[in-house]
Design goal:
With 277 residues, this protein is of the alpha/beta class. The protein has two domains: 2-131, Rossmann fold (3-Layer(aba) Sandwich); 134-276, Rossmann fold. Helix content is 27%, strand content 27%. It has helices spanning 51-66, 95-104, 119-124, 134-141, 158-168, 213-224, 244-249, 272-276, and strands at residues 2-4, 19-23, 29-33, 41-45, 71-75, 110-114, 128-131, 149-152, 173-180, 187-192, 202-209, 230-237, 252-256, 267-270. It has a seven-stranded mixed β-sheet with strand order 10-9-8-11-12-13-14, with helices on both faces. Strand 11, helix 6 (213-224) and strand 12 (230-237) form a beta-alpha-beta unit.
């Protein structure tokens, strides 16, 4: 049985449990789950875009336990707070630990996440199953040129990208660098390790695209080094600033539906149920 808290998100092919949810006038999420027979095991899925989404997930777990469900498995592909995995300046929260501690206290049987931002998330979560981005990239390979360079967008992603390259048997892997002001978040100092790409098509791979500043800066540097067509693949597409600027730099953008459903002429969205089942 599966309880999809976002009815438009159906990543696990099992019998669906029906429910009603609403927000009280004071702002608190609430849920009423319709009764069902097999309470041995329930998979609970959600796309968390706000603290209210997280609140709905929490009350859903409580409701399932009160109904007598024995085993609860959660699937939250984009783990909230995962980017805030270190304290850079005094006064910041270690946000990923806040979310992890709350989920750990629920004592559910497992939680599955997709392409975590760093190993910090998996270290903090109990009973965590972290899916990597390999199946996502494999799903888009047929839509890419036969030969292309795999681009690591920054130092933090390099280890993951080199491992991905080995799994895909790709030999042309290019490292990039950037500088970020920890207080303002401003980006600068974009660098590409190759001197001349000689018209090679390039695929930048990363876990998250928020505003897209990193990828716009790298795209400019890649073009300066004579790159061919540019493609972008991100497991979690927030795209808070839309697609206008990104579409000018990238021939095609690939993402999953881990955060929301997207319809845009320059975006190919891979549904998680297509690569998980």
């Amino acid at each position: 049985m599966v309880l999809n808290l976002d009815p438009t998100f159906n990543p696990i092919q099992k019998e669906i449990i029906s429910f009603k949810s609403f927000i009280f006038n004071g702002g608190e999420p609430h849920i009423r789950i319709d009764d069902f027979e097999n309470k041995e095991e329930v998979y609970l899925t959600h796309r968390i875009n706000s603290f209210n989404d997280f609140g709905l997930f929490l009350v859903a777990v409580d409701a399932l336990k009160r109904m007598g469900v024995l085993n609860i498995h959660a699937f939250i592909p984009y783990f909230p707070g995962a980017r805030q995995d270190r304290v850079a300046i005094t006064g910041e929260s270690l946000t990923v630990k806040v979310y992890a501690d709350i989920i750990n206290n629920l004592s559910i049987q497992s939680i599955t996440i997709l392409d975590p931002h760093s190993d910090v998330t998996t270290a903090l979560l109990n009973n965590c199953n972290a899916l990597q981005n390999l199946d996502f990239i494999k799903a888009i390979q047929s839509m890419l040129p036969k030969t292309f360079a795999l681009i690591s967008p920054d130092a933090g992603a390099s280890k993951k990208i080199f491992k991905l390259g080995q799994q895909l048997e790709l030999k042309n892997i290019i490292e990039c660098r950037k500088k970020r002001d920890v207080e303002s978040g401003a980006l600068s100092g974009f660098m590409v390790s190759s001197d001349d790409l000689k018209g090679t098509d390039c695929l930048i791979v990363d876990d998250i695209c928020d505003g897209g500043g990193t990828f716009l800066g790298i795209a400019e540097e890649l073009k300066k080094k004579n790159a061919g067509r540019l493609f972008l693949a991100v497991s979690h597409g927030i795209f808070s600033k839309g697609f206008d600027l990104l579409s000018k730099k990238f021939d095609k953008i690939f993402t999953t539906n881990s955060i929301r459903n997207i319809s845009h002429t320059n975006v190919v969205q891979i549904k998680l149920n297509d690569i998980l089942n």
